[in-house]
Amino acid sequence: MTFLRSFITFLQKNTWLAALLCALPVFVYGLVFSQIALNVNYVAFDDILILGIIPGFEDASWLERWQRLTDPFPEHRLIFSRSLVLLSYYVFGKVNLVSLMVIGNLCWAGCAAVFYAVFRRLRLSLWYFVPIVWLWFTIHSFENMFWGVSSLCNFGLLLFAMLAFYFATHRPRQLWASWLFALAATYTYGNGIAVFPVIIFLLWVTGRRREFFLTAGVALLVGYVYFLGFPQKTDSLDFSDFQQVKEGLAGFFGFIGSIAALDAYTTDPVPLGLAVVAGIAIVGLFLWLFRRDILPLFRSVLGKPLILSPAGQFALILMVFVAITSFAVIYKRIPLGGFESLFKGRYRMYTALALVSLHFGALAWLVPSRRRRWGLVAVPLGIFLNLAILYANFAGAVNNRRTAIVQEFNARYNTDWLGVRMFDMDQAHYEKIRAYYQSADPLAEGWNPNAATDQLACAGDYALDSLFPHSDEIHVYNSKEFIDAERDYTDGPYLLLKSDSHVYASPPNQHALPFDTFLNMQRYFSRGFEGSFHQANVEPGRYRVYVLIRKNGRNAIYCTGREWEEK
To answer: What parts of the sequence cross the membrane (predicted)?
Structure first.
């Protein structure tokens, strides 16, 4: 105990070390962003569809402009992202998707600034803020980090929601500001509509009756306008279907605890099961911290105000917001994709928010001695989770960058590519929109993808291990060679299928080595790579298989001696 007290005293006296630890994850986050962000349409075509607001907008009437800004996509109102797209275009004459990502990630950093504003009011040692920074600046949600429009939608929504909650809890005399930020959240992304109900809940349970009725009136007006012309709802959770209810219950907690799965794209039932357990633990621990106020909370529903500090109120409504979002996602996603569909990379930011809520609850409700013990556990745990997530997901982020490059390549050089047609557009429209953000086309450098031949000039031969069909995909594997990225993470070995009339590319999916192997070999990526082509996207014909190796920003094509016939 003497050693522990001495250690705590040392930490309290050396706040510069806490400040350094707060800065470090922000630096790492920014470094990862700078290495992977690219001005290219991401894996889905959302960027292309949202940039579709530009053609004809200037010539439209004011009513038509409002309608185009608020047009549902598919069940979201995206004024914030569409407005920034238009602003970027009219100011600079083009739209740089990396610039949109930067703004989105600044919104993410802005949430951390709001957390610090809440934390300062607690008048605690900066050491207690260290876990929040490490938990927040993980790359778990790398889909949002590197997706121009999605970063604006998801991170923008969270910033507006956090500001709305901050003013509702810490600046009660400026409730009008909370309304404005709740309105911005509502028209930034779908679950932003939940911000008003959360604030209304807070006002009622804390006995602010006048503000409750005023806010409820504003929310009703906003909700009426928001749902005007809303599209027909899609399938939702069927409570009479036991299987859906079972998956929904597991998904509710798995969504909240998804940080325990580490890998943002895993479908392995073991880590997904750990996510469910982690979600139950997070909710259970939050209720334990809040246990003295659970009964008063129920009483507050009947009229007796709940007495909570501003930080306690903030922690409570953060968890309520996460719970509502989790329920909304399972309500919509379970019928469409089942349990596994709840673990998309772009959803992972809510598990970080749940942990931030839990940490604020501990700071607000624990007695000093227990709070110190909490901090001693939270700091190393936050650092460990951040670094484990970084290791588990960096390869996935690199693979997604290459996938985005390949997707643009396939859309550009195949006029009948299903990947474009499934989004109700043709190649001419795709190219029209692509001209607004003027992305590079690195895989087409040094040769002509449109050449009407299946014979390409080869720099040499490249042997592949295997080529075979599986689950409606063409799979290619090579386990022998390792190709380092030299200039940037566009470098790598890409697979090509070339016929007289079509050319398709596949990205080189590379995987992270086990951590102990990484320590022994000082290498992150495993040797070799794998590629795949969806057969639905490959038109019938006979194709030659090539490997395009991009190294130090230059392309070289190699013959493999392999052919594929798609029937």
So the answer is: 16-38, 97-119, 148-168, 180-206, 212-229, 272-290, 311-330, 350-367, 374-394
340-363: b (≥16 Cβ within 10 Å) or e: bbbbbbbbbbbbbbbbbbbbbbbb
Q: 269-278 in b/e burial notation, b at 16+ Cβ within 10 A?
A: eebbebbbeb
Residue type, 564: W
In terms of phi and psi (left: phi > 0; alpha: psi -120 to 50; beta: otherwise), the region of 525 is: beta
Q: By C-alpha distance, which of 343, 321, 319 is closest to 333?
A: 343
HSE at residue 37, side-chain half, CA atoms within 13 A, is 23
Q: Name the token pair of 252.
A: 């509710």
Query: Of all helices (H) and strands (E), which one includes residue 425?
Result: none
Bridge partners of residue 474, in order along the sequence? 469, 533
Q: What is the DSSP string of 324-351?
A: HHHHHHHHHHHHHH-GGGGG-GGGTHHH
Cβ atoms 317, 106 nearer than 8 A: no
Across the chain, which has 567 residues, the per-10-residue mean pLDDT values are 64 82 96 93 81 90 90 85 94 93 96 97 95 96 88 94 97 95 94 94 95 96 86 74 87 93 87 94 97 93 91 97 93 82 81 96 95 93 96 92 92 85 83 90 93 93 91 89 82 94 93 88 87 92 95 93 91
DSSP secondary structure string for all residues of 122-146: T---GGGGHHHHHHHT-STTHHHHT
Residue among 482, 459, 474, 487 at smallest CA distance from 534:
474
- C-beta atoms surrounding 254 within 10 Å: 28
3-state secondary structure 169-184: HHCHHHHHHHHHHHHH
**What pTM was estimated for this model as a whole?**
0.93
Task: Please say whether the beta carbons of 532 and 506 come within 8 A.
Answer: yes
The sign of the dihedral angle between the CA atoms of 484, 489, 491, 493 is positive
pLDDT in the model for residue 301: 86
